[in-house]
Inverse folding.
């Protein structure tokens, strides 16, 4: 009997250990997976906003030309946790209609906010649409005047109603100038009160949150106040929409606030774009940390690649346990026209890593959120993949990206039929050359390296695709003039790419 008990205990422990090992292995596999999904049809489609749903899937708001009844229609998409579309709904008329913001409401349904040219009283009116959990419309409301009014962001408030931020040309302090419009509604979308913020210049509202004290915080941009052409404008309001304090952040250039989140220390983190703080006078992605009273604690900018006239911007920001995540757009580190961009920043504002996603056409990242498994979900748009412009949903993991560096040709050298001759003030190639690149890939993620040669004609197809090291490209074709050699190392399954470029003059007839 005693031996039997020992055997039973032994096998019980073995089963527990095996179960633990399998669960651990399954967890590791899940945490390591990445994917990217295209959402769209035969025509152009876009996505502006995403939220995590109760079933761990995602709800997406945007606009579509592929589906619906008008030129552009509001587009609502429900996916599972792996980004597979479960259903989609369109709302609109014959004119342009768009969703700029979407949330899941406390009753399990969804709420969209954007604008409509099909309905309402003006050219464009704010449009909010309430649906059930299957995306069927329950009610909709339009707000606006004779001119254009655009809904930007909506939240559900503590009292079960809603608050939205908009940019209005119909109301405000000056005719035909834009002001910020805050609207508070009840749970049925009926206006309880509204407020206008602005001066003699142009203002627009980008994002709205309800703060821990029950009030609100708005971020946008102002040309009426501050130091420069445009400044980031931060307004703290009480629960009735009255201003408690306001701050402008910027200098003599153009500075824009796009997204805000309240941080764990009760302060605020803001992203946007700035020419005031960039080194070359071009747009950089902007990150601002303030205390709970809106006083700036630090400012940092990201982008402005040396030797390249770049345009970079942050569109969305979130706080994680140990960092901040910015999603945006970059031409500093892109492989093409613009790429979607994700940056991980430490709590002091220093870059930990940045990743780009895309191909030779224009891509952008509009939103980022953290999934329950700790991975990052990016919502954006792509012109490289799909049929035209498609919505692009990406899941990526938290690891530093690989690097690629073009080692040959070196900057500022003369090459004669592939041989390095002597240093010059620019890189000149006479005859053909073997382009060589070194990769630093500690995670062993690189799938392929693509090479492009761009002169007067922009190339969308690679000159060479190499799937294993050495990642060298023997180039012997005829060319004459100024060119850019681009090497792009694609890695993982999220559409990520590491890039290096070198500018050369080639004379090979």
């Amino acid at each position: 009997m005693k031996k039997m008990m020992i055997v039973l205990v032994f096998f019980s422990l073995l089963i527990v250990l095996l179960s633990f090992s399998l669960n651990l292995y399954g967890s590791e596999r899940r945490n390591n997976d990445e994917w990217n999904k295209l959402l769209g049809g035969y025509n152009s489609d876009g996505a502006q906003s995403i939220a995590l749903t109760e079933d761990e899937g995602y709800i997406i708001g945007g606009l579509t030309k592929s589906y619906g009844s008008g030129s552009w229609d509001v587009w609502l998409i429900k996916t599972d946790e792996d980004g597979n579309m479960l259903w989609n709904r369109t709302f609109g008329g014959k004119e342009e209609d768009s969703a700029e913001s979407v949330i899941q409401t406390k009753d399990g349904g969804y709420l969209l906010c954007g604008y409509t040219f099909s309905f309402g009283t003006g050219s464009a009116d704010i449009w909010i649409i309430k649906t059930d959990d299957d995306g069927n419309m329950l009610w909709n409301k339009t707000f606006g005047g004779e001119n254009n009014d655009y809904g930007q962001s909506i939240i559900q408030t503590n009292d079960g109603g809603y608050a939205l931020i908009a940019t209005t040309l119909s109301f405000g302090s000056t005719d035909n100038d834009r002001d910020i419009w805050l609207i508070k509604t009840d749970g049925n979308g009926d206006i309880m009160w509204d407020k206008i913020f602005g001066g003699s210049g142009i203002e627009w509202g980008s994002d709205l949150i309800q703060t821990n004290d029950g009030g609100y915080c708005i971020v946008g941009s102002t040309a009426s106040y501050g130091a420069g052409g445009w400044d980031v404008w931060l307004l703290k309001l009480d629960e009735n929409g009255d201003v408690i304090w306001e701050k402008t952040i910027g200098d003599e250039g153009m500075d824009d606030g796009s997204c805000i989140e309240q941080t764990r220390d009760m302060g605020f983190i803001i992203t946007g774009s700035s020419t005031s703080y960039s080194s070359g006078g071009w747009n950089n992605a902007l990150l601002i940390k303030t205390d709970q009273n809106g006083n700036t604690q630090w400012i940092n900018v990201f982008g402005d690649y040396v030797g390249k006239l770049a345009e970079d911007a942050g569109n969305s920001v979130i706080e994680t346990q140990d960092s901040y995540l910015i999603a945006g757009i970059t031409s500093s580190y892109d492989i093409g026209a613009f790429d979607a961009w994700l940056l991980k920043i430490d709590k002091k504002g220093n870059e930990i890593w940045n990743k780009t996603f895309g191909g030779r056409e224009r891509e952008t990242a509009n939103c980022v959120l953290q999934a329950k498994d700790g991975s990052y979900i990016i919502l954006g748009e792509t012109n490289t993949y799909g049929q035209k412009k498609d919505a692009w949903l990406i899941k990526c993991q938290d690891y530093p990206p690989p690097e690629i560096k073009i080692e040959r040709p070196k900057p500022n050298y003369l090459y004669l039929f592939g041989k390095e001759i002597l240093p010059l003030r620019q890189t000149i190639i006479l005859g053909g050359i073997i382009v060589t690149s070194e990769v630093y890939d500690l995670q062993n993620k690189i799938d392929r390296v693509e090479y492009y040669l761009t002169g007067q004609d922009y190339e969308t197809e690679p000159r060479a695709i190499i799937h294993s090291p050495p990642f060298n490209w023997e180039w012997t074709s005829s060319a004459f003039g100024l060119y850019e050699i681009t090497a792009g190392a694609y890695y993982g399954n999220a559409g990520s790419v590491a890039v290096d470029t070198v500018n050369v003059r080639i004379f090979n007839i």
